[in-house]
Amino acid sequence: MKFFKALPLLLFAVLMSCNRGGKQKYLPSSIGAINQITVVMDNELWKGEVGDKVREHFAAPAIGLTWNESIFTLNHVPPKVFTGAIQNSRAIVYVEKDSVNKADVSKDVYATPQNIVIIKGETDKELIENIDAKAEQSIATFKKVELEETQKRLLKSLNKEGVLEEKFNISMNVPSIYKVGAQEDNFVWMDREIQKGHMNIIAYEMPAGSFPADSTLVRDIVRMRDSIGKLHVPGPDVPNKITYMRTEPAFSPSVFAIEIGGMKGIEVRGIWDIKNYPMAGPFLTYIINDKENDRYMVVEGFTFAPATNKRDDMFRLEAIMKTIRFKKQSKEN
C-alpha cells in the first residue's frame, strides 16, 4: 500500500525532471548522399590555403581504386547559405575565423545522426593547425556514421538463400538483389548487375597456417587470391589463352589490421585484373582469424564497371561484408 500511495509523487518527480530543462527538442533525420560532406566556410577561406587544407584531408584519394577518387565528396557553402534543410546534412565541417581557437566535434545539433566538425581560429595559421589536429579523428567519425547509415539501408530487403550459413556457419546482411551465381564445397560467389558492370562477393576458407610470417604476408595474400581466382573466377574465353582473375601484378595491395565480426583480421585493398585479357577493377578482402574453427574465413568484394566511379560501390561492399557474424557452433563437416 505504501508503494501505491507514493506512486503519484514519483510520477510528479519524473515529470518535473523531464520539464526542468525545457521542452525536449525534436530532431529530424539527417540527409545527404553517402560519403558527402557539407563544408561551411567563407568563399575567401575556401579558395585559399585553409580550403586547400580541408581538401587535403577530407578529399584525399581513396585507397585501392583504379583511378583517383576522393574519400568524400565535398559540398562547399558559405555561412549565409547554411540555413534550412542543408543544416540537416549528416556530415558537416564548419570553419570560421573567430577570437576562440578550437577544434571540436558536435553531435546531433540540427538532425540525427549528425556530426559537425567545428574549426575556429583567429588566423589562417590557427585554422590550418586545428584542421590538421582534428582531421584524422573527424574522418574516422564520418566514416563510421556513413557505414552505419549504409548498413541500415541494407536491411530493407535481404537475401534469404542461407548459403553462407550452410557452408561456412556465418551470416552476412547481403541485399536480396545479390544472387548466388556459383557454389562449391569451399566457395560461394554472389553477384548483382549495376550500370555498365557488376558487383561481386565471394567467400571461402583457408587453413589456419596459411599466413606463417609477417615478412611474407603480402606475398601469401597475393598467392591465395591468385590461386582462388584460377580455380573459381575464370575470365572470358580467349583462344589458346588461360584467363582468370588475379591480383594486378603491377600494384602491391595495401594491408591493414582490423577487427571484424568480433575477431581479429586483415583488410586488403587493391586492384584485380584478368590474366591474358584487358579487364580490371578494385577489390576489398577481409581475412578473419577464426581460431575457434581453426581457419581463416575470407570474404571479398570486387567490382567491374569500366569508365565509371567505383568509390561508392566499394563502400557498399565494405558495409555488407562488415556485417559478418560467426555462429557459436562449429561448422559441420
Short descriptors:
333 residues; alpha+beta; Chitobiase, domain 2; Protein Transport Mog1p, Chain A; 2 domains; 15 strands
Number of helices: 7
**What's the total count of β strands?**
15
What is the annotated CATH architecture of the largest domain?
3-Layer(aba) Sandwich
Portion of residues within helices? 25-40%
CATH class of the largest domain: Alpha Beta
Please describe the biggest sheet, giving its number of strands, its sense, and whether it closes into a barrel.
8 strands, antiparallel
Low-confidence stretches: 1-21
Shape: elongated
Let me know the average pLDDT.
Answer: 92
Radius of gyration: 24 Å
Strand content: 25-35%
Q: Going by CATH, what is the homologous superfamily of the largest domain?
A: Mog1/PsbP, alpha/beta/alpha sandwich
Structure class? alpha+beta
- List the secondary-structure elements in sequence, H or E: HEHHEEEEHHEEEEHEEEEEHE
- Output the CATH topology of the largest domain: Protein Transport Mog1p, Chain A
Separation, N- and C-terminal Cα atoms: 61 Å
How many structural domains in the coordinates?
Answer: 2
